[in-house]
Amino acid sequence: MADEMVKKVQQWLNINYMGKVGYNEIEENGITSWETIYGLTRALQIELGIEQTSDNFGPTTRSLFKPLSIDSNPSEDDLSLEANSIRQQIGIIQGALWCKGYNPGGFTGYFGEGTKASIIELQTDAGLTNCDGVVDVTIMRALLSMDAFRLLEYRVDADKKIQEIQQAINRDYSSNKYFNDDLGLIPCDGIYGRNTNKGLIYAIQIEEGIDEPTGFVGPQTRESFPFLQVGSENNFVKLLQYALYCNGYDPTGFTGYFGIHTKLAVTNFQKFVALDVDGYVGKQTWASLVTSTGDPDRKGTCCDTSDTITDEIANDISAKGYTTIGRYLTGKYAMKPSEFKLIIDHGFNVVPIYEVYGYEAEWFTEANGERDALHAVIAAKTIGIPEGTTIYFGVDCDVNEDDISSRVIPYFEAVQATFETLDNCYEIGVYAPRYACSRLYALGYTPTSFVCDMSSGFAANLGYPLPKNWAFDQIAENNYTVGGTKYALDNNIASGLDTGCDHVQDFDLENVSTIIDILGFNVTEYEKTTTVFSSDAIKISVRNALEEQISGNYATININDGEVREISGVTLASALEKLELTLSADANIELKKTLLSFGNCDLKVAAEVDATTGEIKIKIEQVKSKTINKKAINVSKMMIITIDKDKLEDYVEEVVKSAVEDLIELIEKILVLVVLAIAFFLIVAYAPIEAIISIVLTLIVLFK
């Protein structure tokens, strides 16, 4: 909702600073936003004489700003540049107060009792004890931020006790130089977020006596975590109680004494995160309370990898104590059916992960959710993943609240809707940072979560508790070598909420029989181009997809009862007669048998010639319908034939060479497309080199 005083602040900024170097015009809409805060910040920097202004309240701004108070007002007759700058700075303070919801009593550039009272109110809300109404650099920095220092009552997750923790951390630790330089004051809005988590870590490090605390848990911090138990009483216990409450476990007070209620909160937390449940607080419990990774050296029973599992690697993984392996369904790291069977045969359970472009927030749209859901189901079925298994869709990037609301949630709505059309043959899970997992679970889209806690720097992990529905918690990546083969393995903690699948369920998507399958090129992976034959002169690749792959300029070949009847409406009787004359009796029989095996179908054929290299690329596609769990889908199988005409010449006589040269001019003719396609089918009857020569000789007959 627009606020009239905020609008006046925006107008004042534009009137006073428009045209000055370093200031950017802001919208006058009465709504406090980062744009307005940046405008106030740049205005202050201009008053401080900073030539290279920025949106940040950085070290230079902090070093140049001098405290302002009710005693800072210049006399009315002082019209010096310095006096005018002080009045402007006071105006900036008053403008920032209005934007933060505090009423300084006016917008005058004069530091009066109303302004002082508002500053005291802010200091009190921030938890400070020395509430004197003086705007020092810490208060100025807090003013020029979007941090709130009042409980956000409109947020359902705002918690008065979290606010008490935030205020206590500011009161007891914000005067530390390293804390203050980094954070200034942490917000006191009742929301456990990134800066509250960081402030808590600073507090622990300060209590540990670390000379230069950082707000991040490193080896020194982990080694200095104190051991606590019932009867302990000190500031560490109070910080423990803060951490427990922030993770959803109420110790029933922040007393600094480790009593039975604190122990109960500790044991409940340990049970939830799958630690040894003993009620003692050691290094692992501390780490799990304040960092997303917890103890990175903690041993899990689940792992995941992007590397292909071989017998040797499977044995090595088993020797390390793992019982469950996560593998990708598609993409360049895709698990093949044979690999899946090998993993199962070695006694592992398998957790299927689907990710194509999950590392980009822009990928998450409704359309891509529908697409990915269908592709994931097809891939899972062709690999042999049993129905009922949870497929984890990857959100492998740092997503903020807006990304989650506007991108990730609509994506998973589409995934869920698509799964429903497929009779919910698989369960939906998510691989994502903590906050994304929790939001999706709360909305009912993902019963289980695979948490990418290893990305400890993600904003969506910092300051967010482990999701209630976590099944796997990814905490560390390790690299191993076995038998000279290197492979990477992510270490995951398992909660037991999901165990993956433990057997192969045969599925006959191969029944979608196309010319490519009949020719013996059995490729089951989707959205991946697989080379099935390669020589110096010719390469053959196959690509499967769930939508048509050839568009634009192409010809359609109609095959009926073992005969090629027409191409794009043009009959081919004379062309086929010429083709038959070039072949032996046995070859003609093989050609007829092959065409009969294709049944009645339409093929798309397209060709292109590289103007620079002369390389010829021919694409042959067949689309067939397949019903999966009552949903009809189109399965496209495409064969790509790439011919290097220069190298092809080495295989044939001089007369053949000249014919190939002529092909460049003739390739655009529709007839060439079908002849190439039909001639290529002879590969089932000839060895590769003979088939190549057959193609070229056929062209000579047709165009000489």
TrEMBL record:
Pfam families: PG_binding_1 (PF01471), Rv2525c_GlyHyd-like (PF08924). Residues 316-493 form the Rv2525c-like glycoside hydrolase-like domain. Signal peptide: none annotated. InterPro entries: GH, Peptidoglycan-bd-like, PGBD-like_sf, PGBDSf, Rv2525c-like_Glyco_Hydro-like. This is DUF1906 domain-containing protein. Residues 88-143, 235-289 form the Peptidoglycan binding-like domain. It comes from Clostridium bornimense. The chain crosses the membrane at residues 670-703. Keywords: Membrane, Transmembrane, Transmembrane helix.
